[in-house]
Batch of 4 targets.
Target 1
Amino acid sequence: MPKRTLEELNLLDDFLFGSMVTYPEIGEAFIRELLKTIFGRKFGSLTVIPQKVYYGSDTDKHGARLDVYLEEDLPDNKAVVYDVEPDKKTDTESLEALPLRVRFYHAKIDSRSLRSGESYHSLKRVCVIMIMPDDPFQENRMVYTIRNMCEEVPSMPYEDGARTIFLYTKGTEGNPPEKLRQLLHYMEDTKEENAVNETLLHIHDMVRTVKQDEEVSLEYMKIFEREEMLIRQGRREEQANTERERQRADEAEKKAANAQKEAENAQKIVFDLEQELTHLKKELEKLKKSSPNNIE
């Protein structure tokens, strides 16, 4: 697949999204516009931490990388963590594992949100937001909001502070807000003609600034070169493995041929011995008949 230029990238691409969030004087403003459209409200004090990594508790444990980790301080002193994850994975296995992946993200965030000895009341509320070009649940909804609940009494209040929002860029069911529909369409196809409202025009100005930055362009080239290097390295290793397999196959074939030859030689030796034995038996019979003493 040919390399796409930086100009061709969309906001669902990890590199452009990450570059937007980390760009000085743009990152926080971009995230504010994003959250304002998703939730339909303005956001106050935000702490933006791009590419937050939660390592495993040991070397053999799975870690997690959160694309955009945000904390919002609210008047009730209840901090809220937002994890925003644009996700372009479209294979069936990834979609089927999505609920488990999100569960893991929640667990990782929770495990680092409460200090030893702190009350559980201090646990931060967590909202994981997945933005996807494919329908994760095949219900054609733009918004899927997931909360824990009691199966026997669905109307019973049960607030554990955990929420997940799946945003499907093409969904139409459930009368999604028009501004949200426009935002998701723009994120999937980040072009000026899709910046159809004031918020998106503001975002597009930010996108244009980031895409035209020489340092961002250079970083994109470096990443592509690293990926190309890894691909070449992978091809070399694949070729080396193929050559090793070919050599092993050749050696096995030679061993089989040698074994076959040895077996044929052994069969010839047995045949020759049998022929010699038959000849000796005949000679012995002749001697018996010609001997006056009837040799036994």
Target 2
Amino acid sequence: MDNHEIDYRIIGEELQCVEVELDPQETVIAEAGSLMHMDDTVEMRTIFGDGSNQDQGIFGKFLSAGKRVLTGESLFLTAYTNQGFGKRHVTFAAPYPGKVVPFDLASQGGKIICQKEAFLCAAKGVAVGIEFQRRIGVGLFGGEGFIMQKLEGDGMAFVHAGGTIIEKELSSTDVLRVDTGCLVAFTQTVDYNIEMVKGVRNAFFGGEGLFLATLRGPGKVWIQSMPFSRLADKIISAAPKMGGKRKGEGSILGSLGDLLDGDNRI
């Protein structure tokens, strides 16, 4: 194996974190700002590049770091290495309510394609890069643009997604249609495309947007029940508006509805 072999445990239910156990000289890489806590002999080092063990040279490191920026990540990754003699632990926290999804890349064909900003941490040697969507329709209407993240290697990698995570195993004859925002990740054997929602009323009044993601097997697909964009929209719609008033969500009564439900700020 080219990657460091790390042990781990996922802690929590709704706001999960992942605790990684490091043997002496083992290293885990993580997205900047994801650290929760670490033991005393674990040393952190900011690195350029994609996290792999390859000697990329300074130009290669700038190129791979620049690619990460295109997926919404920072220029830098942070490497955490156990410099002690016994086992030590480092824990990384999810940025919003949801689940941490572990991927054993060796058992997934060495590559996972996932939504932008999903990466949390991985064993040293896993390359964190970008995956370009070759179909124009997918790039324009697929919800993730032309660029997605890819995780390559033969070690453990961890991504974060919102709400509950469902894993689907698709055969070569299976087709799965998914809300574009709910797609978390899929294996490289899955064919990813988009299709327009059928029916004018469905498209404009169904509340699901104009397009759905279409995934054809064989392979695995991971789906989230609460995309962060949907969560953010709900928070914004429920937040107090300018002048101390809030939106009467789902109510045609407006300010009268605020009085009836106990909010007298009208």
Target 3
Amino acid sequence: MSCKAALLIGLLVCGGAVSAAKSELLRYQTIVAPDGVPLNVVEAGSPDAPGILLIHGVGQSYASWDRQLHSDLVSSFHLVAFDLRGHGGSGKPWLATSYNQSCIWADDVAAVMAATALTSPVMVVWSYGGTIGMDYVRCRGIANLSGIVFAASRSGLYPNSELNPRIPAASEKLKSADVAKNIQGAVEFTSFLTAERLPSDIEASVTATNLMYPPYARKANDGPKILPDGSFYKNNEDQIPSLSLPLFFMLGEKDAFSSAQAAELAIKARFPKADLKTYRGAGHWLFFDAADAFNRDLRNFTLRTIKSKK
């Protein structure tokens, strides 16, 4: 057996063990998106509590939010996470039109909210998850949201800067038809998520999850999104005036995907009334690196947002 084959088997075994240990503490269901794609949905906390919707980043899953789903947040809030289409335990449709249509992603979010009875939740988006959140805003509006937390997520609202040059190369390997390159790309991509190297069991699980997002889906989701009228858009800067609700931008000081300092300047210029915090010592996966501080800030923001709507 080759080293790479052994690595893949090890990743899958270790990754399964990590999630199985805590799975019984969560509530799982499979719902069907309007176009028939099954979506894996996970809940924690009382359905009667104020809602928080968690949307993960590219190549990941609901398990990205493990340190929130298994925290004291569940004593006060109804937490809902799901695997984006093409990711994790959700369906992986073949056609490019199942990924490159903006409002399909918005429909997925709306379906998850309806199935879990989330009313006016705070939506928390991480990295590429912000693009999905903005698809929802673009296609569905903000009437059924209390606020949005952008966790290390530009969401197409301001330009990127100082991307680690090794990240695009890892992303290209993940889109290759060569499985060995997929594995190498997954290992490399995982290494960029946190400021310090992950514990081996979590590193294995996250790397395996990257491999669950197939190359054809990555390619289909790579270009500009298409709107129902057939027009394209490349970013979400045109949606800035519509974001008239409480916003919280959270940044990781050591984010390999974007300069926190440049992001701070861009956010202050575009969203002067928004909350903004940079987590010292944290990387791109800041709610893992700085889980306690993140959870505390998310709790306070959500409680304050709920009060402001009353």
Target 4
Amino acid sequence: MQKISKLPKFVTAQEGSPPLMKDIFSLLNECAYAKGGEVSARAHAKTLADMYLRLDKKDRKSFLQVLSFEYSPDYARLAEAFTKYSVAADIQSRCNAEIALRTVMYSPRKRILTQFNAIPAGIKFLVDLRAELLDFMKELPELNVLDSELKDCLASWFDVGFLDLVRLTWNSPAAVLEKLIKYEAVHKVASWRNLKKRLDEGDRRCYAFFHPKMPVEPLIFVNVVLTDKLEDNIQNLLDENTPSNDASQATTAIFYSISNCQYGLRGISFGNFLLKRVIDSMSRDFPKIKNFATLSPIPGLIKWMENNPEELTGACYPSDWKYLAKAGVTSPQSPIFRDIVKNPQKYFDNTELITALKTPLIRTAAKFLTTLHADGRPIDFVARFHLGNGARVEKLNWMADNSPKGVSQSLGLMVNYLYDISKLEKNIEKFTVEGKISASSAIKEMTERVSDSK
């Protein structure tokens, strides 16, 4: 049974609460039960939100504990309603019992959350509140019931039908551009000049989802480059001095960075809808573009190799050992196979060794990207996202990211996922129903040879 953290005294003894907490209880009650009417309840919600923002970390945790446990559904009424629902003998009785059950399950804390949503800047307040809640749950896991309810509310209020797709340019508001720098999660923006390159009116595009009540807060954004090939090196794309491509002649759109911006919306998916909307938009604007693909990192590769050292040695064929021996690797028992995943930067700078390991590393990465976890999903979370949206593993790129981050997570390897519009639905069905990963013939050949060699 999960241990519940010790609750503050005022959770069960309101009379002994400090003055501030008495005010908070009073405001929570007004928001939960709206005894003075809905207008008054919303005014109290604003006061309560302002008060929460003035609390220190300790009192915020206490506030969330109070909200979670003092304003949960009435368990006795819930049990009674569930019993009636369970024994309902006919359709009408079951429908009536279900209505009653739903009414009882609508908790006072959900009414409070809904009141917050109605105040100015309330939606942003709730997003930030959940961000704090997620952090507090590491210490207080019993807050997961509040998190579940708040997440359900946010998922409804942030339904993709309510969101605006906006193309961002260098002329977008400075407040929004600052957020792009802050929230970029894949390839750090080094400077304003670097950001300007990513928003180049020629061959670059940046699209973001916004909620109408959070007009300067992007929810998620994607960077795109228009080109005539599958790009294979992220440094070239990010280099401020790289010449722009002729967008009017582009045949390929490369998504090279997708960043979620709001931690408080974790677990609420926007990325799949964003890519589909962007593909539709670009298909209309650039009819010559037929290929949509990514240049993506492989963040879990080194960790997987560390936990499965036999994968790299198993990907070394007889033809590879001649070159490996010259680099000082004479057998599968060589400590280098173990050490390279512990200090990848050290070995990445050893040109002879890393060149000898090129082909085995690519084979290992192909195996990694096409291997399913025990839960039936790809091990790599980036692969999980793109494959779940109908893409296929198209091509692995050697020395594609030689930044410290790229070396530490995948020894510089990156991957192209291809979005073939004509096969998206088929790929999604194969993936979700049959558990089959779509991959190019070259990737399949590599994984089949690795399997046959064992």
